[in-house]
Amino acid sequence: MTTRIRAEHDLSPIELSLLEERLHKDNRRATGCADDRTLAFVIRDGAGHAIGVAAGYSWASTSELTLMWIDEAYRGRGYARQLLSAFVAEATVRGVRRIWVSSHDFQAPGLYEKAGFRRIAELAEWPEGHSNIILCKTTAADGALRQPSQAAASAPDVSPARHA
């Protein structure tokens, strides 16, 4: 059988997900940590459309926030702060000790810093004329003792109907 490298820039989300799961399986086997889970909070408008999200994952006492977005029409209402607080609360309940996030200088590094994240690195000229900033937050160790249902109950209510 001959193997070859071929450009396939249009992999389907299903195939990409299957390949990613194979990587996760290898990581679990190598580390003995099999606690990887998605971690996501969404804000929806009255019609059910997503207007904001904080999403990532938790694994091996660490979490990464990979997607933070608020629809432009809903910015400035505190939704990003509320989503971030809910994300951090749930990560803490899961026993996460560190939360990582990457934010370009034109996005929201100040939001993360106000929430207790510290700048760990700044990658200049990514993209050209800007920086990509890597931030980390260390969470309270005692949060791991709470049950997930308690975190959900104590997480801020991020429904737009109540905070509009």
What does this structure look like?
The protein is an alpha+beta fold. The protein contains five helices and six strands, in the order H-E-E-E-H-E-H-E-E-H-H. It has a six-stranded mixed beta sheet. A hairpin with a 6-residue loop joins strand 5 and strand 6. Helix 2 packs antiparallel against helix 4. The longest helix has 19 residues.
Shape: globular
Q: Widest sheet: strand order?
A: 1-2-3-4-6-5
The whole-angstrom Rg is 18 Å
What structural class is derived from the secondary structure elements? alpha+beta
Order of helices and strands: HEEEHEHEEHH
What's the main sheet like? 6 strands, mixed
Task: Tally the beta strands.
Answer: 6
Measured by DSSP, the beta-strand proportion falls in: 25-35%
- CA-to-CA gap between the ends? 61 Å
Number of helices: 5
How does the SSE layout of this entry go?
Layout: H1 13-31, E1 37-44, E2 50-59, E3 62-70, H2 79-93, E4 98-104, H3 109-114, E5 118-124, E6 131-138, H4 148-154, H5 160-163
Parallel strand pairs: 3-4
Antiparallel strand pairs: 1-2, 2-3, 4-6, 5-6
